[in-house]
Queue: 2 jobs
Job 1
Amino acid sequence: MSLIKTAAQLEERLARADRNNRSLGFVPTMGYLHEGHLSLIRRARAENDLVVVSVFVNPTQFAPGEDFESYPRDIERDCGLAIQAGADLVFHPPAEEIYPSGSSTAVEVTGDMTRKLCGASRPTHFRGVTTVVSILLNIVRPDRVYFGQKDAQQAVLIKKMVRDLHIPVTVVVCPIMREADGLAMSSRNVFLTPQERKSAAVLNRALQKAEDALRSGLQGGGVSMLEAVIRDEIGTEKQANIDYFQILDGETLQEISRIVPGRKALAAVAVKFGKTRLIDNRMLSVE
Amino acid sequence: MSLIKTAAQLEERLARADRNNRSLGFVPTMGYLHEGHLSLIRRARAENDLVVVSVFVNPTQFAPGEDFESYPRDIERDCGLAIQAGADLVFHPPAEEIYPSGSSTAVEVTGDMTRKLCGASRPTHFRGVTTVVSILLNIVRPDRVYFGQKDAQQAVLIKKMVRDLHIPVTVVVCPIMREADGLAMSSRNVFLTPQERKSAAVLNRALQKAEDALRSGLQGGGVSMLEAVIRDEIGTEKQANIDYFQILDGETLQEISRIVPGRKALAAVAVKFGKTRLIDNRMLSVE
């Protein structure tokens, strides 16, 4: 069986697999795997001798009242999909394995970067993310760790944490996977009603319109004009309740007034459809 | 030369030394080595194939107005002493190697434990300590890391951080080394005037009196009586300016009213002599 519940079992299995002399790729997930996760696992498979996938719905990155309890879970299906996509081992620890009784150590990227975008509406979220990723990296000790660009701010913060703390791992960020109508794949998409599901395609459409506007050169790279394009497009969907939309520097997440050659900008949106909050983003650049 | 300035050089030297197939002991210090540090290095030498000592006066564990600037430094002497005591390599990075421009990630043990004793008078100190130790552990990746019991609260917090974050290292805490008159060895002892140096012996004397009182059984293990013994003894020295003295549970640092069989208690004191703040402690237990 490739499903592993404890750090000690994982250590033992990796030692048996001669982990010290083989490269190890790690894909941390919250499970309910979709094509986005599977693309990370396939990439890890292609680049490493051993691949570990974790499935752990991390309680510390949910605030009270968020969807921790209802977050979709199906470990048997996940395990099958992960193995099929190339995982050697699936690590599925209970919460008390990751956070033993009395745990109170946190890893936090401080400063502005954490307070923007999702950090503004979910102020404790990223502290939970960086803490659990630190813990998982200490348990798995991979050469490479894989994240999706869908969670753009998370990817920026993880890269910063790894750099700041000198964590000996390479962070690989993989492209967003999308449904036929452009909706970014997300485990939370299952919560959408058929009507909301249809409306949700507006996120990608709005980002695409901003990119088209930038390409057409009409906006001259001015960020407020591009943000207006996004807002207007999302406004066409009555069901869409905007949490944020913003264009920031793609690396520092600082505010910018224009997109300039040589620096990528991150256009990021978060929108609620009924009770379900979805995010999407696009990297923008000019020649 | 065994003096190494960058993480990349250290990595290269450890790779050449076949670090993956040999046990590695690590002694992080702020330099100006004394017998206390040397006892850690000798212990590391006895227990490991390779020994790395770091000398880094960590700016983030000093608050503005504390003695960061004046903290004593002598890297040439330190390097010689470390090698003589058994170090293979001495890692002496500049601050920008540990904290590259824009660094803003912190590792913090949250909760009461960090706010007591030294944490009360130095509220940002331990956040700096746990952050730099995390970074150094990520750079050196030792099997065992050595700390002195002199910094008792630091040792407790490091052990907690290592456990909470699943850092793959064994924390070894070594006994306090003392001068002939019982003064705990400290790099800061050089700041004492001859008169203060003489007075400073009161720290160990006070702790010894508390231990004797406990042994005599007269106090029945009652903590407030033992604390009174400590206060009265320190009070005999006019130059001694008490910052704190307290007896807490030795593992959780929670307040206790009595010392009970099976649990160690930590009697800890901090006293200023002129501008120099010294700490000392003793583990107390009853049968």
Note: The domain at 187-279 of chain B is CATH 3.30.1300.10 (Pantoate--beta-alanine Ligase; Chain: A,domain 2).
Job 2
Amino acid sequence: MKDRADSSRQLPGPPEERRIQLSHGSGGGMSHALISELILPAFDNPELRRLADAACLNLGDTRLAFTTDAYVVDPLFFPGGDIGTLAVNGTINDLAVSGATPLWLSASLIIEEGLPFSILSAVLASMQKAAQYAGVQIVAGDTKVVPRGKADKVFVITSGIGRIERSIQLGPERMTVGDKIIVSGTVGDHGIAVLVAREAFSLSGAVESDTAPLHELAAGILRDGGTGIRIMRDPTRGGLASTLNEFALSAHKGIRIEETAVPVRPAVRAACDLLGFDPLNVANEGKLVVVVAPEAVESILDGMRRHPLGAEAAIIGEVTPDRPGTVTARTALGAWRLVDLPMGELLPRIC
Amino acid sequence: MKDRADSSRQLPGPPEERRIQLSHGSGGGMSHALISELILPAFDNPELRRLADAACLNLGDTRLAFTTDAYVVDPLFFPGGDIGTLAVNGTINDLAVSGATPLWLSASLIIEEGLPFSILSAVLASMQKAAQYAGVQIVAGDTKVVPRGKADKVFVITSGIGRIERSIQLGPERMTVGDKIIVSGTVGDHGIAVLVAREAFSLSGAVESDTAPLHELAAGILRDGGTGIRIMRDPTRGGLASTLNEFALSAHKGIRIEETAVPVRPAVRAACDLLGFDPLNVANEGKLVVVVAPEAVESILDGMRRHPLGAEAAIIGEVTPDRPGTVTARTALGAWRLVDLPMGELLPRIC
């Protein structure tokens, strides 16, 4: 976990011996290595190379956002949500942070033989509830069944289409030295909630997943911030650390954060201390990070804090000219540390 | 397998005891029952109720087609193709038979821990090759890894977006008594190829999967047939029998076919005889069925036969006023039989 971000770009071992490890799905350094060494070269095209949360596509006069995510979370149900809620909110969020109004979703299900209908029904009901809440429709679907032991209960794969207004331009290339980094609320809630549910830890102070649709919050930010908005992302797998590293690497700028400025629930901090996790590496499912020009900070923060999902929004750092491609944090003790892409598999099947 | 189509609409047993069976993924009667009893009521909306291969969506002046499919085929590699080829061609075909020009795909991968990189690379290369061949781009993706034994090697989930010209109107409601049914070539090739590869049967006369992109063939049909084209579909899981039953049920019309007119390769027929399968129930991955007005038949057939994927196109039957909702076939011996939705699990994990 303490390797440098640039050494994480390499996959170990000779190609013929390499096998997929759990850490390749972590959202951290190994995921980045797999994507940059195997997947991007295979599908080489400029839209995919952007590695944004959603592709931005031009169709005549219309700009579309298009995204997909597979959900394999274990357990299926956890405090604050379930795989169905997660699958719908997650795809809505990928569209929202790309500047799009989410419109339509598709849902593919891969079901293990023997799954009780009651569980499938509950997952479908959660999906529909989340879709209705966000005003999107699930318009296409597919269902596959595999024999017992060839999948784990049910996997849900959602894809989504949204519309992007022509005036909206977001991207790491717009990040400028002096820009401020804002996070919309507490980090690490989702990862810890799922871990506690899975391992049946008894931790005082129950933690709930933060799964939530960010489309309203994102739309408000775009309205309040105008061209002062540089880029948005929802820090899911790999947590805030992964998202900030991705920003720094693609923008070729440094990012400096104040660790004490990052909102973390006491129960999440306690669980992280106990389990040896850094809250910056733990997954979120209802938070966004936005990089904004200094002059836009005040109006954006005001707007965010008026929305329930942004009530605890905080400025956590800024874009710097030094150490391009890296993220540094000032600790509570005043020391500086490097915030790396997490390298190991912290929390498998977290989403 | 010999139950009536209408009895297939019911799921057996009290709700609290029901569990997903392999046959719920067969594409036959049990799949239909699962979809109509559980999934459609959960996601209730008119676009999904159409049960088309792709949703048809209006965005300003633009008409979009949107579709998704999960691929869980076993084995990953089989004569004529692999899971990557299948996943790309299958989604292209769902767009094409909906009257759309395929434009963009997304790809989600669910990978089992321990999968050799070499296998993943081969699958990715097949996907890219198929996408390039059809002129579509894979613009969005996601990769998840699950522990050993929680998935089987790799599942590939593709979604796709296409553009539909405003003039194109297809649907079962356009089917008219006297319309002809055309199939673009031999049926059952894919299902038998996968089964032979999986079970390592040694059957004389190797059968290859027919996996192929149907966008050119479909575009040609639409150009040659104009408003004479009623509906198109690619008969995948559940085979030609499922597709024709879906047509008959949604159109509330009868369908009558001549069994001897349906093209079947001798090796496929031999394998079906040996294994007790009806070629009409066996999956295809590079064939389409189109219902056309009598006056358009000649120009459409001429056009289809000029394309390599339609060289063996044949008129196999017609739309009738009697027995609405059912499909009947005249056998080689001149007897009439009911062609039902296949009810059991013929070939699990065929796509």
Note: The first helix of chain A runs from residue 29 to 42.
